[in-house]
Amino acid sequence: MRRKPESIATLAFSVLSAMPLSLLAEETAPVPVWEEPRHRLVYERDDIRIFNTSIPAGDRSLYHRHEHPTLYVVLNIGAMRNQDLGRDWVDLPAGPAAAGGFLYRDYAAEPQTHRVENVGDHSFQVIGVVNLGAGSEGEAVGAGTPEVHNRWFDGYRARLAAGESTAAHRHIHPVLVVQVGAGRSLVLEHDWPTAEKTVAGAWSVHDGGVDHVLRNAGTAAVELVEIEIK
Q1: What is the mean pLDDT of residues 133-137?
Q2: Which domains does the chain have, with CATH numbers?
Q3: What sign does the dihedral 213-217-220-224 (CA atoms) show?
Q4: Dist. CA 128–CA 151, nearest whole Å
Q5: Average pLDDT, the chain
């Protein structure tokens, strides 16, 4: 029996499905950052977007747009290069000297449409926090001195020995807590332990105006960052 010819649409789909993502990226129109497949949207609420970006060695993203202030927490440093739309590839600086560093980009002032490629030999990973709101010029009110302080974000760091806790403190606005290395940690609200974290990149979001404590519940030192989203 003679086989019925496949439709053009079916053939096209088969060809595209067989193409590696790096080639498909050449043909894809720019998308908002949280719709880019490697920038996985993990939290969405009001004016807050949180995405977990993971780019394996040798892989590249699709073209995507950044249009709002963004603060990154680097979890795994990699050798990266960047290509702004319509321009040549450029190698990127190494970024923070160690995992756990903050990177702030004011994309509201300088929007960017680009793609990135991991040219190193291990995975690159960041947690990105996007503020779509109006921001606030208020003073920082978290525990300790912020490493990042601007209209959009306050970024704090807590390094806790085994069994150690921060003082009880509160933020005016919602806060993202990220564990940036190995260990076991808890966030306590109303003296009740919650949001247990056991791996690098584990995160939780907490409302502003609520006292909370960061606690190292493990047997080794642990490092956490707090990002108040203003």
Answers
A1: 94
A2: 27-131 (2.60.120.10), 148-229 (2.60.120.10)
A3: negative
A4: 17
A5: 89
